[in-house]
Amino acid sequence: MKKISITALLIFVSINVKAQDNLPYYEIPEYSDTYTAGTLAARMIDGLGFRFYWATDGLTEEDLSYKPIGGSRSTGETVDHVLTLSYVILSAALHQPYDKKDTSQLSFEEKRKQTLINLKTAADILRASDDVSKFVIVFGERENPFWNAINGPIADAIWHSGQIASYRRTSGNPINSDINHFTGTVKSN
Asked: What pTM did the predictor assign?
């Protein structure tokens, strides 16, 4: 596989998303012909991206403010948390220490878009690598192995995407019944 710089990859993903005027993960990208640590990690993130895309597609203000019980996160706050997790995943893929972003001024749609772009960028970087051990998560001076990315922010974001899907069902706006999580596709009508 031809290697490209991380900056070139970010520009490509950004231009590709703008050119299509679509967000990534409407469907899961085609799977790799080979099984490597990088393609497996990327596929996990692709699955997360697909689930997050559909869990958040068409959320209303009522959905975003829904809380199952007092003291828990609202759907909107859960979306914020997944955005933060996507920055942790992306930082590891970019070989950069995690730097907390202030996303408080972003609209829901901007947060959703940024989360999906972060996940797609990270997945594309990992997909091109055979050795994911170099993608450490760095918090300040502490480095954490990529193992922690799998059981930490990736698994956590998958968990929270399921919460969002459950919350929206409870608030009267279930996810599109035409999606197939097993194949990562959408039934055509």
From this structure: 0.87
